[in-house]
Amino acid sequence: MSEDKKIIESICHDMASGNWNKYWGENAFIIRPSGNPLTEEQDKQMRSSNDIVIEKEEMVAINSLDIHGDVATVCFTVHQVFNYKGTENDDNSVVLVVLKKENDTWKMITGSRSQGRPPSEPLPIF
Question: Is 59 exposed, middle or buried (0-12, 13-18, 19+ CB in 10 A)?
């Protein structure tokens, strides 16, 4: 396994655990299930808000990881248990991130998160 692949897998496990803040690239955004973009600043505000209480965030699986020079695409499934504005959520979601290596550091330049599905439903097959 290449060193970059090991690093990217570690980054994705960290992101799936809720530690996105370390990996945002300049002007990066994630497309939410609503179709609306989420910027680094909005993510920080959301995670520090009293509107959301996160109980659990963990990696379920890395579905695909492709490295093309200094750009990588990673698709992974994450399990999140949280309360948002009084609504309980227990979701498996699929996340797609595009990372770019700059100055030997991998940063997310864009991404998307699918609508969550209950853990009792089958996971998508990749």
Answer: middle
